[in-house]
Amino acid sequence: xxxxxxxxxxxxxxxxxxxxxxxxxxxxxxxxxxxxxxxxxxxxxxxxxxxxxxxxxxxxxxxxxxxxxxxxxxxxxxxxxxxxxxxxxxx
Length: 91
Hints:
two-stranded parallel sheet; single chain; 37% helix
């Protein structure tokens, strides 16, 4: 299965780093033998949709490929398994 990963951090302070999120997601994909097609990363606040350019691009790419994302409002509160199930698959 080919998947796309999405990570977002709201600020550069508090030692927030999208690599922390991506590390867990990459490991989950490796363990599941899933191929990572693309990674999307934003540095923007949760409600700042205007500046979440990677999220907008992920949605655009999904529509172009006819990929269905049943949870368009996925959040960071879940674990890697939840994130991956709500991300773009079948790319």
